[in-house]
Amino acid sequence: MDKSWMSYSRVSNVYLNGVESFLNLAFATSSQENMILCPCKKCVNINWHVREVVQEHLIVFGFVFGYQKWVFHREPSGRFASTSNSTYPQNFQHRSAREDDMEGMLRDAFNMLLMVLIPLK
Q: What SS3 class is residue 59?
C-alpha cells in the first residue's frame, strides 16, 4: 500500500485524501464500539477515539513518528491479511491513559504508600 502521502504537508489534498483512505481501512478492519486507536503524535496508539476526532488529530498533529506499518489498524500484509475483528476482546474496555489509577501504579512501581502530608501543630 502506497503511503507516500504521509510525507506531504498536512494541509495538502494528497495528505487529506490519504487520511481519508486510512480512516476507511482502519474503521472497516479494527474499530471497536465505533472507535479506533488514534495513531497521532499526541495519542501514539494508546487512546481510543471516534472517526472525527482521529481525523482531526491526524491533520493537526500528524502520525506518530515511524508508524509506517499499520499494525494496530490491520493493514493488509500479503497472505496473512485478515479482515476479522479478533485482535481485541469483545469486552475490552476503552480507557485513556488519564483514567488509569496513577497512585496505584506508583505504589506498585515503587512499593510505597503515597500519603498526604499533614502539617504538624
A: helix
- At 92 the pLDDT is 47
Say if pTM beats, i.e. exceeds, 0.70.
no
Q: Position of cell 502539617?
A: 119
Vertex 43 angle, CA 37 and 46, to 5°: 50
Residue 37: enclosing H or E segment and its boundaries? strand 36-37
Bridge partners (DSSP) listed for residue 15? none
- The 3-state DSSP class for residue 106 equals helix
CB atoms near residue 80 (< 10 Å): 6
Residue with cell 476526532: 53
> CA dihedral in degrees (70, 73, 75, 79; nearest 10)?
120
